[in-house]
Design goal:
heterodimer; A: alpha+beta; Alpha-Beta Plaits; 2 domains; B: alpha/beta; seven-stranded mixed β-sheet
Chain lengths: ~150, ~425
């Protein structure tokens, strides 16, 4: 699965604004999350669900973000604090192991960095334009006890 | 299974009780309500039917009318048949949520017992609250007496729930003059009434767990406009559905409703346009005036206020005999002509007959509107017709103490 933001997702990128007229929008802005019936969606991982084009899972809001969290696997203790606190379910964890950030939905609020208990932190905020590899290369070292 | 309610062939019901019986017979699933004079007995009645086993439903007590309509929206989006009632200040507090209900295309039925809006605080009937709702995207139907206050909610469910319509419907009646006036009402048996309304078939209901759905999503400049256009078209396209439901109701009961009711318009030289309980007053006044003074008066009463029946209003007005029309608005006009004057004038402008049209404001805060005053206005219309132009101010106030109040003069001669 892709953890980086993907600008080719969402209704605008799919060209809906050119293809859909007033007579084709859904009645009452009712938006079904999935294509067809999906009784067992609660038991499927997000990447295995058949989200439809108009669901907010499919849409990207990456452009809202000016700073981004970068995740450092080498320091992380898989405590799941960031997963619990993230207000946009943008921390991706499978079987209680951290995989990284969903950059399509992360808005750069920094809560995950605040709640990270490791020393040094396993998540730090960087400018959106900075490459993740460079951010990881310059990761701070463990602080000594004062 | 709800118990059958033992009904006589003819009952003596006031408008409130009549409306509450209609909600019961439609087997409304959820009523979320907050009490307000004069509409309280409608929801109080439904609560009683729930408590006594005459309806399988839920009565939800909430903290305000804003919450009442919000609760109705949640229940309707979940897939229930939903109704509530309100008046005046409660209607005003509900206003924000009314737009949500219509935009979300939820066929909620709101029985509105019309009452004046403060200030000054007033519990009596006028049409201020009804007029406040006219841009809210709801279908608005007006009952003139208790029988209609019973019949029209039954029709309202069938209209709003039609899958091509899917819009909320208000059924109005006048505070006190209809809501608290006991009259003979011929109800349907429970099974017959429910058979007419039919089972509610929900659309995109949230309780269908196989198809998770978001209701009331946000759209900005990208999609809001398209949704509003679609909603407006649904409102205008509801006209034939309303006609069909009224036709079905006539077949079942013999009682006929039209989007515009007309009385004695075939040869009318002058006409009054008005709403609510005043319609019956005007009919009595017109009949008497025809007999005693030979003035050919007709009455036009829009049964349907939204979608405004421009089509049928034009049919009613476009008769060569008709020379002068008085539109009577029972709502403070707030620095403009009354709503009926504006809508009727717009409809008449593109007809070939184009009668003289003037405006009366009347009955505010429950000020009585009697036969004598109706006849005085009818005679005034006859004077306009004879002169060939409006001989008074275009907008006048009826039944007002103090010096005569009026605005604007005609430029047609």
């Amino acid at each position: 699965m892709s953890l980086q933001g993907n600008d080719n997702r969402g209704i605008r990128e799919l060209g809906a604004e050119k293809k859909v007229g007033w007579d084709e929008v859904t009645q009452g802005v009712a938006l079904n999350s999935f294509v067809g019936e999906s009784e067992n969606s609660a038991f499927l991982k997000a990447e295995d669900r058949d989200y439809n084009d108009f669901s907010s899972y499919t849409a990207t809001v990456a452009s809202w973000r000016i700073i981004k969290p970068v995740y450092n696997r080498d320091v992380c203790i898989d405590c799941q604090n960031c997963w619990i606190w993230c207000p946009d379910t943008s921390i991706i964890s499978r079987d209680k192991q951290m995989l990284g950030i969903d950059y399509d939905h992360c808005k750069g609020c920094g809560v995950c960095v605040e709640v990270c208990p490791t020393n040094p932190k396993s998540l730090l905020m960087f400018n959106e334009a900075e490459e993740n590899d460079e951010a990881l290369a310059g990761w701070p070292v463990k602080e000594k006890k004062k | 299974m709800a118990k059958e309610f033992d009904l006589n062939e003819v009952e003596v019901w006031d408008g409130n009780y009549a409306a509450s019986q209609a909600l019961r017979q439609a087997q409304v699933d959820v009523v979320a309500a907050y009490p307000i004079t004069p509409s309280t007995p409608i929801v109080e009645g439904y609560g009683g039917y729930v408590a006594n086993g005459y309806v399988d439903g839920e009565f939800v007590m909430v903290e305000s009318e804003h919450a009442a309509m919000s609760g109705c929206i949640g229940a309707a989006a979940s897939g229930g048949r939903v109704a509530t009632a309100t008046s005046s200040q409660g209607f005003a507090l509900m206003a924000e949520v009314l737009y949500q209900a219509s935009g979300m295309r939820l066929p909620i039925v709101l029985t509105v017992v019309n009452r004046a809006l403060a200030s000054p605080l007033n519990v009596r009937g006028d049409h201020s609250d009804m007029y406040l709702g006219r841009d809210s995207g709801w279908i608005q139907i007006d009952a003139f007496n208790s029988q209609e206050a019973y019949d029209l909610p039954l029709c309202a469910f069938k209209i709003g729930e039609d899958t091509s319509v899917r819009l909320p419907v208000m059924v109005h009646q006048d505070g006190f003059t209809t809501s608290h006036k006991a009259q003979n009402v011929t109800p349907l048996k429970d099974a017959v009434a429910y058979g007419f309304v039919g089972d509610y078939v929900p659309v995109d209901e949230m309780l269908d767990f196989t198809r998770p759905v978001t209701h009331g999503a946000q759209t900005e400049e990208d999609w809001h406009y398209e949704h509003k256009a679609k909603q407006h078209k649904a409102l205008l396209d509801s006209r034939p559905v309303i006609d069909k439901v009224f036709a079905d109701f006539k077949e079942l009961t013999g009682r006929e409703y039209k989007r515009v009711e007309t009385y004695m318009m075939e040869d009318a030289e002058v006409a009054l346009v008005l709403l609510g309980s005043s319609v019956e007053t005007a009919i009595l006044a017109a009949k008497e005036l025809r007999e005693k003074e030979g003035i050919k008066v007709g009455i036009i009463a829009p049964r349907c206020i939204r979608p405004f029946p421009y089509d049928l209003i034009r049919d009613a007005i476009d008769t060569p005999s008709l020379k002068s029309v008085c539109c009577m608005d029972k709502s403070a006009p707030g620095g403009a002509m009354g709503m009926l004057f504006n809508e009727i004038s717009a409809a008449a402008y593109t007809t070939s007959s184009r009668p003289l049209i003037s405006n009366y404001i009347y009955g505010l805060g429950g000020r009585d509107f009697a036969i004598e005053e109706a006849q005085r206005i009818m005679r005034e219309q006859k004077a306009h017709a004879d002169a060939g132009h409006i001989t008074t101010n275009i907008q006048q106030f009826s039944g007002l103490r103090g010096p005569k109040l009026g605005f604007y003069e005609t430029r047609r001669s």
